[in-house]
Write a sequence for this structure.
């Protein structure tokens, strides 16, 4: 499980690539979390602009105009940015 420095490194690594960009697609891999993922999350984020990426403890906070998405890096400790063409 990633520690605080790794989470901050991930935040700094992805922020320049995604801040200010519009969401094209969201894939929720597992909805069975401590707090259930809303069934309409992917649809509600589509075409929204990501305002900023912040960190609170070991969580990443993705700020959108209508609120935040809370993200944890899980056991793998990585976040990937992939080309939308692939």
């Amino acid at each position: 499980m990633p520690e605080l420095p790794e989470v901050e490194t991930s935040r700094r690594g992805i922020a320049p690539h995604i801040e200010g960009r519009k969401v094209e697609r969201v894939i929720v891999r597992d909805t069975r979390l401590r707090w259930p993922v809303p069934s309409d999350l992917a649809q509600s984020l589509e075409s929204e602009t990501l305002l900023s990426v912040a960190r609170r403890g070991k969580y990443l906070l993705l700020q959108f105009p209508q609120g935040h998405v809370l993200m944890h890096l899980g056991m793998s400790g990585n976040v990937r940015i992939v080309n939308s063409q692939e």
About this structure: The first helix runs from residue 4 to 18.
